[in-house]
């Protein structure tokens, strides 16, 4: 059997005519939104547009906002911010998973937070952090260089 590909909200599968029908718009409107950078579909090797389920949802949202009297520049900014929020949610999920894995590797490991005065506060596993307290998790991207060891004097040096 061939390799199976998982289809999710991001998979570009719809041609422009199908995406236009699913979103209740004319294909020319979708082309215009693509040129304006509002909803930019993926492209096939031949240059044809391919829309995902997320693109169709965005097109419906653009239509709703436009009907509510929101201008296209404002809609573009809203979509840009929604994409950024989606990206940040993904990064938070990834970081939470990394922290969970690290904590599982280290039974009895402690989590630290900085208090409002800057003092380090130890938290027991499972302790909720107050809103005013920021939890900081840090791991260097590259191993820190080893501290230089003290050089020993050679007896045979003059």
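^ structure tokens above, recovered residues below v
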């Amino acid at each position: 059997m061939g390799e199976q590909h998982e289809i999710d909200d991001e998979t570009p599968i719809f041609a422009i005519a199908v995406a236009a029908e699913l979103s209740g718009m004319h294909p020319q409107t979708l082309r215009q939104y693509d040129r304006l950078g509002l909803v930019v579909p993926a492209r096939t090797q031949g240059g044809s547009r391919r829309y995902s389920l997320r693109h169709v949802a965005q097109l419906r949202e653009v239509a709703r906002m436009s009907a509510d009297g929101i201008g296209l520049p404002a809609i573009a900014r809203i979509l840009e911010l929604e994409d950024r929020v989606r990206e940040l949610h993904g990064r938070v999920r990834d970081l939470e998973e990394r922290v969970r894995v690290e904590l599982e590797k280290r039974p009895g490991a402690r989590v630290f937070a900085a208090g409002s005065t800057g003092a380090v506060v130890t938290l027991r596993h499972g302790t909720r952090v107050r809103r005013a307290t920021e939890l900081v998790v840090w791991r260097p991207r590259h191993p820190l260089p080893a501290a230089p060891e003290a050089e020993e004097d050679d007896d045979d040096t003059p």
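The helical segments are 16-23, 27-36, 53-67, 72-105.
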